[in-house]
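Q: Start with the shorter request: fold the first protein.
A: Done. Sequence, then structure:
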Amino acid sequence: MDRQAYDPKTTALVLVDVLNDFLAEDGKLAPAIKPMVDQLHLIEHLQQLLNGARDAGVHVIYSPHGLDEHSFDDVTYVHPTFAGALENKVFWKGSYGDDFYPPLAPHTGETVVSHHRMFDSFINTDLQTRLTALGVQKLVLAGLTSQTCVEGTGRHALDAGYHVTFLSDAVADFTEAAHRAAVEISYPTFGHQTLTVEQFLAAITPSATTTAS
């Protein structure tokens, strides 16, 4: 399949869960995921991605996880992962752990959608509304984790009719097995393209690239 080009006007980079609880040294989940984050050079790749997308004028959208004591009031059977997150107040709204990791934090004017409580950034959030308002047709997904929130968001995006791209070197998971399952099996199944950061940045339409005045 020939690679698609990306017009910045209709393309959005959706950056999922780049939060302190994952990435800061004292984050609650950082000790468990740090070996894979380091092995995959995730932070460096995300910085490269953000710099390139911003320079090209691609829409940058942040999708943060966030929980509080009422997050699952309407759920009878809370999944054990999220029961544990509630007990340990992971990604707790208003806390340090739910803040964006400073080196990857949003710039002024970039879109931050409302908190998602599980793996899908669309459910119970304003992501769809924001994408519609921006006229987005193609979603490019990166962040954490490879097999859960990034994959879950991409699956929903595909069902909703978007062109979906996963970035194989701009995601990470707690284990190599989970990461590889996402990149090698799920992403080709649920995405139109699986690219590296460099491949995506090179495919942004040059004629639409923002230039300095």
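Q: Next, the second protein, separately.
A: Sequence, then structure:
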Amino acid sequence: MPGLFNTVTDMATFDLDAYFARIGYVGPRTPALATLHAVTLHHTAAIPFENLDVLLDRGISLEPADVFRKLVHERRGGYCFEQNFLLLSALEALGFAVTPLSARVRWQRPRAETPPRTHLFVRVDMADGTWLTDAGVGGLSLTAALRFEPGLEQPTPHEPRRIVREEGRYFHQALLGGAWHDVCEFTGEEMPVIDREVANWWTSTCPQSRFRQRLTAARALRDGGRLALLNREFTVRHADGRSETRMIDGPEALLAVLAEHFGLHFPAGTRFGPPGSPWPT
């Protein structure tokens, strides 16, 4: 699709100052591993994962100016195609060698099911090897990059992670409650612009898409906790493993939770989801 960044030359106009102000990052701007880890954490903690424009039938534009305006200037969140495109663009502007990769999200799906290949994440090639980062997988978005080394358990500021290879596929997994859970499945295949456009269209418009069927928002906390919103359930997960869930009792209470905990502000009276419903059930 014309206009989408594909080369380092195109990144000359990327506003790193505005992006860093948005995520609260004031550290070094060298393409080093410490920078990669720090930018990943700051991005995931500052910019919430959310699908609210899908439920408002506003459409999801992947044009660079639109993504930047929405997530940076308007201080909104987004889902993987927006989140990881912005992250990839920032890393490229910093001088990292980055590649957009495609994946299938497997969180809470059985291995027998084949979900659509509608996830975008980022490969980063460095002198010491290849790393993966992902700010767009909801309540399990990475808060540190992962070394692309199958079988290696890796700590992050949040859950331990690993990459395993089984039956010719890679699986990104998180250690939760003493067990490893699939987050996504991938082959290492690059996701070119046209594939992102097609997957984004399906994700944001198809009635069978999970993003058309439920409201979701998530944000990592710098102390190791996480915030998650799924329809009427708001959950705070603490760094020590404790979690607290409460039900949201009305549409105005939902707007208050979005504003207070996710920094997402909408006019009073905003309703998400089908006519007659404040948000999907």
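Q: Describe the second briefly.
A: The mean pLDDT is 93. Residues 15 and 75 are 15 Å apart (CA to CA).
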